[in-house]
Amino acid sequence: MSVCIEPSGNLIQWLSDKGVNLKNVVLHYKESERALVTTQSISKGQVILHIPTSLILHSELNGVKGIRRKVQEKLSNQAFLAAYMLAELEKPNSLWCHYLNTLPAKFEHIPVFFNEDKLSQLQGSPVVERILTRRKKLHDNYQIIRKAFSQDCHYTLEEFMWACTSINSRSFSFGLGDQKIVAMVPLIDMCNHHCSPNAFWEGDDLGFTLRALKPISASEELLVSYGDKSDGRFYQGYGFFPEGNKRGSARINVHLDTASQQYDLHKALLNGYSQMEFEVNDVWGEKIYPIFKVLRTMQLSSNSESYIEKINCHQATDLASEQQVISYFKVLILQSLALYPSTMEEDIALLEAGAESKMDNRVTYRNLLMVLKEKQVLNNLLCFCSEASEHLAKLAQGQASAVSVTACTLFKMYVENSLNSSAIIGSGPASRNKITASVNFHTKICIPKVSLTQVTPSVWAALHSISLHADDRTAVPTTHSLLKDVAFGPCKNVGPVSRIQAAAIWANNQPIGVFTYLWQSKNSVWFGGFQIDQAWQGNSFGKGAVLAFLSMLVADDNFNNMQLDVISGHYKVLRFYQRLGFMPMALNTQEPEKWILKLTRHQAEKLLALEGYSIAE
Question: What is the pTM of this model?
Answer without folding.
Answer: 0.84
